[in-house]
Amino acid sequence: MQTTVKQANSRAILGRFNFNKLMQVVSFAFIFLFRFVPAPAGLTADSMQMIGIFVGMLLLWNFAGIGWTSLLCMSVIVLFQIMTQAEVFASGLGNWVNSFLYAFFMISYVMTQTGLSKRIAIWSVSNKLASRGPWTFIIVFLFASVFLSAFMSQTAALLVFIPIAEELFKELGLKKGDRLPQMIILGLAMCVGIGSSMTPIGHAIVLIPLTFLARDAHINIDVLSYSIVGIATGLLVFIVFMLIYKFFYRPDVKPLRNFNAQKLRAELPPISRQEKITAAVFVAVIVIWIIQGTIGNILPDIGAYLSSIGNAIPAFIGVILLCLINVDGKPVMDFKTASTQGVPWNTLIFNAAVLVLSAALVQDKLGITKYFTKIVRPIVSDFSSFLFILVAMFLLVMLKQFISSTIMATVFYSLLIPLALTLGNINVAALTILIAAGASYAWSTPPSTIPMALAGGSGWVDLKVMLRYGLALALAGVLILSFVGYPLASMILK
Fold first, then answer.
1. Cross-strand bridge partners of residue 330
2. E-strand spans in 342-471?
3. CB proximity list for 108: less than 8 A, separation 6 or greater
């Protein structure tokens, strides 16, 4: 019997391996052979080549990972002379988004290493409000993960909260298979996704569409404008999420009455100088980003200056300060350690490749966006702006449940924004915000995001439960983005 199970597992692994290899072959066929497919009127062989690279890279990123494949993406675009080497590096690795993320990942790393992130999490669940009852505790605990992930990587935020949750389960005698811990672990994975959609701070998925819009339409969406829409829609999604849990999932929360959250706070060491300094620098950087989007209305000259320095330079200054300030003879941030252990280089290279791929796809000389617009415009020309937004958000969020967030943000921006510009009745800045937020709405399958994969592989969560409640929340997200997000964004960005 044991041998049979092992054989079945081996066949399943071999099947997945063979399928992935097959898809890689298909991907290479698109990349290197698609230019030989006869081009329809309006397109050229170079256009077909670029379409082949686009489709092939989307497949490769899904079936071969995001490492060497990202280097391949940038290489073939130069090899086929779609862009020059200088253009590729300017659009990708030299783009300000990667510099911004590089610095912010280092700051987030120090927040985790000093214990500041854990302290914020424990403070949130050991306050008087959280102790009022089981459901209040659950709401505060899960919302704390939303708050933290709004300002740091959703994966990092999840890894702060899971050990706290497992300590809670251990103290209450809860085991894998019980509905309450399943709800909490799945809830944490969903909530960090909600939080990551709220602000562009440290979130590449949000930043990429905003960067594309500034490049293509010269429309700049500042941190504050995006965050108003992201926070408003995110809070509504969180409220719907808690209502689904309370009235449809309906776990037995009685064990939480016996949990003493003050014990966690009592076990915290006194706050260190390193934590205080890190917190001060972190808050200062965020305040500068907020001021960049608001002070121009009051003090135009100062506002223009602050806007001219961009979002990356304040983060750089934050890193510099943390490296310069010493506590007990050591810098708060060790630059070498933070840059090697705190920065996910695979992610940065992937982001660079995505930026290059999008820049190549929308080049006027290829005519791809004009061709797509010509084909699709007759279909959607009779759509009201609301119907257009509703259909776009439904497709984005539903497909996002199974495909990488960055890929979906890139694909939908590349397809929808040129179309919206020609239709004339769509606020493209508002639509870009919705694409940026909606690309983070992934809650129903492990492949959709790393947090969902961690939850799915933890042993605490039944994947059927994840799919059922994740899809329900995704549909709610579509409606919230369409009915609330778009009108609010249109009002802010007229």
1. 327
2. none
3. 117, 152, 153, 156, 202, 342
Domain count, the chain: 2
Question: At 326, which helix (H) or strand (E)?
Answer: strand 326-327
Supply the Cα-derived Rg of the chain in whole angstroms. Answer: 23
The Cα 483–Cα 236 span in angstroms is 11
pLDDT at 10 over 70: no
Cα atoms in the Cβ-side hemisphere of radius 13 Å centred on 132: 8
Are 57 and 134 in the same domain?
A: no
Q: Measuring CA to CA, which residue among 230, 163, 165, 152 is closest to residue 194?
A: 230
3-class DSSP state of 330: strand
Q: Which two tokens stand for residue 320?
A: 């510099």
Residue the block writes with tokens 């408003």 = 232
Give buried/exposed letters for 153-179 (b at 16+ CB in 10 A, else e). bbbbbbbbbbebbbebbeebebeeebe
DSSP code for 331: E
Indicate the DSSP class of residue 424.
S
9 belongs to a structural domain: no
Burial of 433 (C-beta count, 10 Å sphere; 0-12/13-18/19+): buried
Asked whether residue 398 carries a pLDDT value surpassing 80, the answer given is: yes
The answer to whether residues 431 and 420 touch, using CB atoms and an 8 Å cutoff, is yes
Do residues 477 and 397 lie in contact, with contact meaning Cβ atoms separated by under 8 Å?
yes
Q: Does residue 49 sit within a domain?
A: yes
Q: Which residues neighbour 159 within 8 Å (Cβ) at sequence distance 6 or greater?
A: 454
Indicate whether 58 and 104 sit together in one domain.
no
* Contact predicate 421/217, CB 8 Å: yes
Query: What pLDDT does residue 471 have?
Result: 93
Q: Which domain holds residue 50?
A: 28-34+41-83
Q: Which residues pair with 322 in a beta bridge?
A: none
pLDDT per residue as tens digits for the range 210-232: 988 988 888 889 888 999 999 99
User: What does 9-39 look like in DSSP terms, one character per residue?
Assistant: HHHHHHHHHHHHHHHHHHHHHHHHHGGGSPP
What pTM was computed for the model? 0.74
Shared-domain flag, residues 78 and 99: no
- Summarised one tens digit per residue, pLDDT across range 257-292 is 877 777 778 888 899 999 999 999 988 988 888 787
